[in-house]
Amino acid sequence: MLGGLAVRHSENVQGTALAAVLERADSRTLPLLGGMARPDGVVIASERFFAFAGRDGSLLEGEMPKVPRLLNRLPLLRGLARLSMSVSPLLRRDGVAGRNERLMLTAVLLAPLFFVFLSGTASLVAGIVMTVTLLAWLLRDRTLYLHGAEHRAITAAENRQLTATWQGDAAPSRFSLRCGTNFVALVLPVGLLADRLWPFAPALWTPIVVAVLSLALSMELWRAVQSSTRRVARVFLLPGLALQRLTTREPDIAETRIALTAIASVVRRELAD
Hints:
- The chain is of the alpha+beta class.
- The chain is built from 12 helices and 5 strands.
- Strands 1-5-4-3-2 form a 5-stranded antiparallel β-sheet, with helices on one face.
């Protein structure tokens, strides 16, 4: 089931109403929040809602698509479903990304399907070029700083420090255990291992199946690590946390408030029920 239409607000959303939402949220148990940083703002999402707060003061609000109940019960498939739903704010027609960016991201997602027709060397070179280009596009401008702001705002929500963080009296960590960077750091070794241990004879479709299986296995492992209370499980997150030193920068208070604005939009709708 797809989410409802997104609604864009062009006015500046800061003010007493936002402060009241943050104060109320600090006294309540909130759902898990995730997000993504962009050059022009920050996306924050719960399982039901998302919001994009722009650097220009604008706000885009929408609903997240729901993962079908049947898929939620099926290992591997549930991970792939959740992964696809997580990029909904970007790829949906009325979402955050513009038409040209949606086309580019779709092309990147489909590109590996065509790499199977290339030689091993050509496929490797094409993959490296595509990855470098994508990273340069995604991490341009103030994205690294807004990525740090996204983490800080989500940690503030988890620690019930939203109001203090908005006022500058608290500065939660810019590093996050649940960042997508940690997931990417898991995908790489899992993918290499899956490729090595693939038990069947190579075929035209083998790279596609291995890639999809690697994503599904990585998502299951990531979810298991996130839900584990054992400290040893955190070892799987260390590469991603180290990588975050490259993918985040220390945000200023204005950038942190952009992420907090998006959080306020999401939790306002969550607490309205």
